[in-house]
Amino acid sequence: xxxSHTSVSDFFRYFxxxxxxxxxxxxxxSGFPWVLIGSVMSAxxxxxxxxxxxxxxxxxxxxxxSINFLWSPIVDRVQIPLLTRWLGQRRSWIFCCLVxxxxxxxxxxxxxxxxxxLIIIASLAFVIALASATQDIAIDAYRIDVLAENESEKTxxxxxxxxxxxxxxxxxxxALPFFAADLPGIDWPDVYLAxxxxxxxxxxxxxxxxxxxxxxxxxxxxxxKQYQQKLNHAEGSMPKALSKVLAWLGVTVIEPLRxxxxxxxxxxxxxxxxxxxxxxxGEAFLARxxxxxxxxxxxxxTDIATFSKLGTAVLTIIFAFLGSLFNSRFGIVKGLFIxxxxxxxxxxxxxxxxxxGPDLRLYAMAIILDGFTQAWSLVxxxxxxxMLCDRAFSATHYALLASLGNLGRTLLxxxxxxxxxxxxxxxxxxxFILTALMVIPSLVFLYLIRGRLxxxxxxxxxxxxxx
Length: 467
Prior knowledge:
Distance between the termini: 23 Å
Largest sheet: none
Radius of gyration: 22 Å
Number of strands: 0
Structural class: mainly alpha
CATH topology: Growth Hormone, Chain: A
């Protein structure tokens, strides 16, 4: 089933758009903090002799990404004094969050891991996660807002640029600390100081990016008037200040949820939420323990940097463009099916490596398949979630859906080390088989609701063409 008449040449011409360059750089800013509190943190803790279970539990800080929808209405509506007038609503939030990430990262460079300092390191990791999760709310909303409503054909291209940016920040830039860690005289605190300089460059770019135009504030003002009228009608003579506060809260907190369920229908909305929650749990279990697995099997830091970081990043960028072209022409639902099957297959490849040992050829094959999986699943999910958002509440809606997708991944995957140690007694092969099986429920669920999802996809394109 084709959902678009976009030609291949027209599709790739979209990427010349300067707005998509900003989407790419903001994608880097979104992915880079995962290096700071993810792969580099895991390697540092492993080198200092912490257990797999403890390293896995450190991943609980990623829970901030799972619940950022709770404060997403604030990012949508609250204006930061002075900065909002200078930078605009979206960029002012991105700027402030990156400054917090910079400060916490710089603090990491002055700490040595001891039993007493673990709580400090965990606290700084949580601060980075909290700031990054808040930043992601504004970045995702920026990507949706920056395209006009009659540019639906660029949605998949924007998703590809965001995905490529994220993986450039997470994997390409994330490879540098692993190369550096193998150099003589360089330890992990030194690495964190260098990573702080990268955050500085991202902050500078935010200052020169262009804020998207939006009539969001006018829509919010009109909705607040309607709420005030309803409140005054229901309560009779209500103090004006109180009705104004209640109207603001109603538009900020209640209206985004009402809008989401009204646009999609209650049953479909619940079905969409369930699928998003289930889809990438197995992949997250693998990702949380991957660095520990590579080091235990016998791969060096340089091997990890070359294959897992640089290799995955390059492949993901290539497959992201191919995946977005496929989604643009054939629909993102089919893209999700393909990425789900590939996700299970890539997890089984890691199970094979666990049996054979540190075979670089197998490692390369697994990375190719994993890169394909990462690219197609991310591009499809980003475009899919963007399609479901009401532009009047783009930050809140995207955060609600994306954080739900992160919920199972971040909270449950924190116990991945416990599963390997206590349940499977160090059996990595069985662990990766289990992560492959975790993909099945979401694929079954996707198959059952595929008809309704195709319908939603067609409605989206039809509405955009009417605009």
